[in-house]
Amino acid sequence: MSHIHIPDGVLPLWLWLSGWVLALVLVAIAGRVAERVEVRRKVPLLAVIAGLMLVAMSSEVIPIAYHINLTVVAGVLLGPALSIIAAFIVEVVLAMLGHGGVTVLGLNTLMISAEMIVGWALFSAIVRMLGRDRVRWAAAISTVITLALTTTLLVGIVALAGGGIAASRETGALDPATMSFANPLSGGVFRAGLFAGGEEPTAATSSAPPPQDASLSVKRFALVVYTLGPIGWLLEALISAWILGYIASVRPGLLWEGALARHGLNVPDHGTGRA
Prior knowledge:
Distance between the termini: 26 Å
CATH class: Mainly Alpha
Structural class: mainly alpha
Strand order of the largest sheet: 2-1-5
Number of domains: 1
Order of helices and strands: HHEEHHHEEEHHH
CATH topology: Arp2/3 complex 21 kDa subunit ARPC3
Helix content: 55-70%
Largest sheet: 3 strands, antiparallel
CATH architecture: Orthogonal Bundle
Radius of gyration: 19 Å
Shape: globular
């Protein structure tokens, strides 16, 4: 939800440059911290999860213009430090494939990293309260809350950019001018765009002048993402709950002896041990 699919030249210089600087600093710090957690043994896991995120973010649920992220799943399995590294790797590859420009790579890294870390923290807190037998509930709740928070962060970035991103947001079957839904199946249900690029011609990339009232554009953008967003949040919550529940059932060590254990999470088992 928080991936910014816009080409170069839309964001103001100070915004995307700040994103690059902060992202590089964050990645450098994460690299230092990761050295303490036997990072060489975690490289295969890091590679697999980054690959899964890459495929998920390259596939679109067309009627709601939503891209599955798997960020909460990745954050839970990798932990904060490795999550930042994975986010940077994924964003570099996506930028090379045309899913957003190079200049926006820094902001995208910060956004996805925040999503993974917040998801990890919320899952850790919720599973402490509910116990190991409620993994699916913890995953679903933490996913919805995380995506709601990062969507709000995305709206904040749009406001800082002066509305430029708002004009380039894909809205699927929703007409942003009238806030009404067209036939959701007219363009298909699902599209995989790993090598097709992520941008369509929009008002932001055409020669047409930008909207005169940028503040209204930001408001319209917020209305669109908060209309479409909850549908995507629930869809991703179901997927995250299923994945983490399955891992807890067949490979519990990957969940409880991984990033959660490294950060001192001692989860009580409240009964059946079911995921």
